[in-house]
Amino acid sequence: MTILVDDAGSGDLLFGVVIGAYRQETNEFKYDVIDVHFYQNKFKDKEYLKEASKIATKLVAAFNPNTDEEIHICQGCIFDTATEDLYKIYGEKRIKRIHIEGEAQRLIEIAYLDEIRNLGYEPLTEREEKRAKNFFHMMRWLKNNPKMLKYAKTGWPKLKNYQLFKQFHNSTQQNEHIQTYKTTCNDCKNPCEVTFQPETTKPAYCKKCWKKHKSHKPIKRHIKNSKNKK
Fold first, then answer.
1. 96-143: pLDDT as tens digits
2. 97 - beta bridge partners?
3. What is the pTM of this model?
4. Can you tell me the distance from the alpha carbon of 2 to that of 14, in angstroms, rounded to the nearest whole number?
5. Which residues of 200-224 are buried (b: 16+ CB within 10 A; e: fewer)?
6. CA angle, 74 then 33 then 90, to 5°
7. Which ranges in the chain are annotated with CATH 3.30.420.10?
8. Average per-residue pLDDT in the chain?
């Protein structure tokens, strides 16, 4: 018997990457996902390679391979670390790097498409044949749905030339640079964080209690006096 390991989505702008394993003799299929955050701030550190190895190792182990069962892994560089780690567990003779196709490739691709459909995005039917068109189709969808940028591989260096992603990075960096201080809410006494240095003379509130105080504050209205003309 043979276990095939492949990925889907690594070249796509949306979502993380699906790692799947398929045993062709029994038609068993399992998959897991490299979370998209590995392709955002952590992308330059290539943490996704370790995560791919972790997932691939877990999936293969779930099949409880026979002692003579081979494990065929996709030739893509995303599995370079996984291959080395699987060598140590199962031996180099049982691990082969090949071009994955057929039912294994189809099932893993379907898993990825299901995941991005769950975001509300409908993929192009010809996405594999027209990669450039697929990229811009996803980017237009993100432009129309800016809240979904958190599901995009924003760590890709090539995206720095697009205004959509410049704005996203700027807002993210601004949020990261806001310093917070731990304290206790003056009302509910629960632990909370505030954006100013807590003082004994100045009350501090958690978000929930602050909203209550804010809603009770009187609204100052500036009324322009006018004289009636006779």
1. 999 999 999 999 999 999 999 999 999 998 887 888 899 999 999 999
2. 73
3. 0.71
4. 31
5. eeeebbbeebbeeeeeeeeeeeeee
6. 45
7. 2-161
8. 85
The SS3 of residue 44 is helix
- The burial class, CB within 10 Å (0-12 / 13-18 / 19+), for 60 is buried
CA–CA–CA angle 199, 204, 209 (5° rounding): 175
| Tokens found for residue 203 | 């009350």
User: Which amino acid does the sequence have at 197?
Assistant: Q
One-letter amino acid at 10 equals S
Of 171, 124, 169, residue with least CA distance to 14 = 124
Q: How confident is the model at residue 217 (pLDDT cuts 50, 70, 90)?
A: very low
84: nearest Cα among 108, 59, 58, 49:
49
- Sequence-distant (6+) residues with CB within 8 A of 182 are 191, 192, 193
Q: Does the 2-161 domain belong in CATH 3.30.420.10?
A: yes
> For residue 206, what pLDDT band results from cuts at 50, 70 and 90?
confident
DSSP helix/strand/coil, 92: helix
Say which residue the tokens 């100013």 belong to. Answer: 196
Measured between alpha carbons, how far is 51 from 81 in angstroms, rounded to an integer?
Answer: 9
Q: What whole-number distance in Å separates Cα of residue 17 and Cα of residue 100?
A: 16
How far lies 176's CA from each of 70, 116, 159, 167, 222, in Å? 46, 27, 20, 14, 37
